[in-house]
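Case study B.
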Amino acid sequence: MSTAPASIAEQPQTAVRTGAELVVDTLERLGVESVFGYPGGAIMPLYDALARGKVKHYLVRHEQAAAFAADAAGRVTGRAGVCLATSGPGATNLITGIANAFMDSVPLVAITGQVPQTLMGTDAFQEIDIFGLTLPIVKHSVVIRDPADIPAALAEAFAIAEGGRPGPVLVDLPKDVQQASCARWDEPMEGDDLRPSPSAESLAEADKLIAAAKKPLLYLGGGVARSNATDLVRDISERTGIPAVATLQGLGVLPVEHPNFVGMLGMHGGRAANTAVQESDLLIVIGARFDDRATGHLASFAPHASVVHIDTDAAEFGKLRHAHSTMCGDLKRCLRTIEFTPGDISEWQAETRRLKEEHAPRYDAPGNGVFAPELLKKLSERAGDSFVAACDVGQHQMWVAQHCRFSRPQAHLTSGGLGAMGYGLPAAIGAKVAEPDATVVCVSGDGSFMMNIQELATLRRYNIPVKIVLLDNSMLGLVRQWQELFFEGNYSEVDLSDNPDFVEVANSFGIEAFSVDLKSQVDGAIDRLLAAKGPILAHVRIDPEENVWPLVPPGKSNADMMESKW
Amino acid sequence: MSIQNIRIEFAFAEGALRRLLGVIEARGWIITSMQMGSDGDRSIMTLSLNPRDGTRKIATLIRQISRVYGVISAAHMDGATSFIREIPRAAAG
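Model:
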């Protein structure tokens, strides 16, 4: 896996190429092996060239899935995933996926066809201003108006998507630019590394705060994975013994069994982690942004803590929480320059370990029905270090975060910032394509699964051995839970009891599937899932009234947690 | 809420103006006045902004503007809290 920004091999200019051919040439030179997409009128020249090139194209059944699959490939590899779509509806169908990559800082390059330049601005058939529509949700975007600009513009798009704080870049390609012939073109140039280095003052202040702290806590976010800094953070944690909590996107930086890992903080975080944060006198925040789902009521969050904030993006400093020391730049470079020499924190270490033990999750749920947290915990442990979870959004997503074991943060693919239902199945496809040796499990709910269920056809077409665990409570479970707790049980539009028979649906796509109804069937189901050579779906019926615990009510302090009554 | 004045220098490129104005509005600021000039390669814009609520910090906005690809410099023109980020000319295009 490489997280180095894109570089491009030199190629002699020996022949006349069309714009579309230059796109394919450049993708190949950038090392792109796979793209996800769906053809249509305005991108047909590119598809024509693609069919004669070396880049493998995966035909999805909805453009949103192409963006989600590319997003997952980007998260797993650190290199920008690539999705393609035509103009108009093809392009607009990418938008949710682009927004997802933007919110979670994922490297992604989205290439869209556009109507010919002479028709742009005339309300032509399938014309839409995708450049304008996506401006707020891209790191950068460009309309390429001259085929000679294609190699340089595409290479720049990858460099921007992958460099610094990663993000999505949109490349809009008018059809005439794809079709035009070109004898000379601009070669890509190597960009400068513009990431700043931490200042001596901020370094000294960080060292001083860490040395003086009695209750320091590492606060790990998604930036650790994006900067490929996991090993370094693990080393710091082990060398110093400083306890750590993680955000949803930071899970896996330290495996759950690590003695220094206290747990996930936030709305569905553990009591141990939230208590540790509230008691801490120093948060060392690495690649995190004080998301509201992590902090709860901001004014009462970590009331005794000073903050050392380390991030690739200076715009996060002081945005929501004042930092006493800020360090901007490449995370690894920043982390290597801090001394990390805390004083005697043995009492604090013992306290956080006691909290973790005291508030460990319970799996002795009453009844004979399947207890989803137990199933997910067992499945992740049985799959071992190769386990990669691609989640949808809802209760199951939180159970995955709370109960699965991740060997690394790239093993947990979840739509954190945007919270996009429908992410799971296409993300699992993208992850398995990017990392064929991984045991990729799509964990979905019956609501989310229906949002991109058509991608079962993609699984079948390419025989991608993704394992699907479909937790079916015939409800929009998380909405139902909130209606129960915060809307006086007024259940409004959450009933999904008219779902199709998911086993029959999967079978009709040519995918092996089976049902699980009882706790006693769980071990056998895991055996079957892990043994399957091709794609497989386990349809798991769970109690519609099961809730996700713990829960910090919206707008409340993380100290005010609601927990299970059993 | 007090009016804040900022100055942005950015590379002249398709969509650059829309992108910058979008960032400012999306981050919770109302643009109350604006002047802009360009020499063909670079544009310079001065704006007066009003925050939508008391939680908006001008230093944060300046950093958010500074990270937009193609921005050469962004500065808060009032008071002691001015913040400037310079990006090399070669990187701005």
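Chain A touches chain B through 21 residues (CB under 8 Å). The remaining cases will be described in the next quarterly update.
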